[in-house]
Amino acid sequence: MVNRSLKNIPFRPQNTFLAICFLTYWDKHLLHIPFKETVAGSNPSGGTRVKSTTTTCVRTNRWSQICYSIFMNLQFKGYFFILYSSPITRFLGRIVSLGDNAMAITFWPFIIIRPDLKTNPVLDELIRHETIHIRQQLELLLIGSWILYGFEYFYALYIKKLDKRQAYYYTALEQEAHRNAMNPNYLNERKPYAVLWYLFNKKHLSRTAIGDLIEQDFS
Ligand SMILES: [Zn+2]
Question: Is the pTM of this model over 0.90?
Answer without folding.
Answer: no
